[in-house]
Amino acid sequence: MKIDRALLKASWDSWVSNDNRPRAGPWWLQWVWTVLFCMALAVPFTILGFVAFARGEGAWRNLSGWAYWYGKNLIVCLSIGVVIHLLFDAARHTFASAARVRAWRPWQRSVFFAGTPIVGLFLGWPLGVLLAGQDVTVWIGRREGNNIILGSLLIGMMVSFLLHHFFAAKSRQLDAERRATESRLMLLQGQMEPHFLFNTLANVQSLLDHDLPKARQMLAAFTEYLRSSLGTLRLEQCTLAQELDLSTHYLMLMQARMEDRLQFSTDIAADARAVTLPPLLLQPLVENAVQHGLEPSIAGGRITIRARVESGQLVLEVQDDGLGLDAPKRRAARPGAGVALDNVRQRLLARYGSAAALTVAAASPGTLARITLPVQDSLP
Length: 380
Fold this sequence. Notes:
This protein is α+β, with helices and mostly antiparallel strands and 380 residues long. It has 11 helices and 7 strands. Helix content is 62%, strand content 11%.
């Protein structure tokens, strides 16, 4: 997986997000953010320690002292951060999946996202103190030691509370940005082929003069396509059956234009039809197969749409037996040939992180485009 700026931003956003959705990017990158955050958090605690305990002239200019106590605080922060990270990972894979978290009431989310760091604090703090070379047990019973323990825990709880509210606000911001991005990409996808509408109307107009039955057939298919597409654009989520309905009307419309040069079939498992997914994910794959696989070919070909559920994942495939990926580029190729597929990848990354993917590969003959996305996390 290529680590670029977009992936780094998506990975950071998924680390900050307050919804337990699948994380973007490789798993180890989430640990990088945890370590970096702990390194940053150790700085104010080190400063606080110097404010409270530094004595004597020149103590603040003692660089070795800064390094020593920063190291101690870093060990404690890392211990707490690692425990909290593990607690959230365990919860996400058991009782707090993204779909369940989004169904919780606000107070349930607050209890979970504020309570988990506090539990991690109480578990990770004594472990960190022990790893830093201090024995917590010798403090117990002593007034000064008890004050240090109580003060540290109170400060830790206050920091956890403040960080919870910070991350909650950041999560709301990211959610708004994610929805805006998806809306923008959906609108761009809907505007990707405006000439398709004009070409279809021109074909209907020309058929009215010499083939009225075919013109009526094409106009009926065009009407159904518009009804499906306009309804889909207004949805944040739709079922695979709705997506398939839109793509089928599109293929019927193209079949009326290309006649026997275009054949298509579907193989959709019954349990896959009700799976929810963001709209306009299937349509770009079908359009790509027609425009770049079959339309340039004199013989045309066949498009097959398949869908199944495997191990909690929806596997959605569009395969054509057209020219394939190695075909020479046409001079008159429509602009933005790869934009539609890039939009699909961006929407999958924004919604599902690294749990979803779009791959395009040679099919011998033709091309196979495959989308995989999690079924359990497809709810809005």
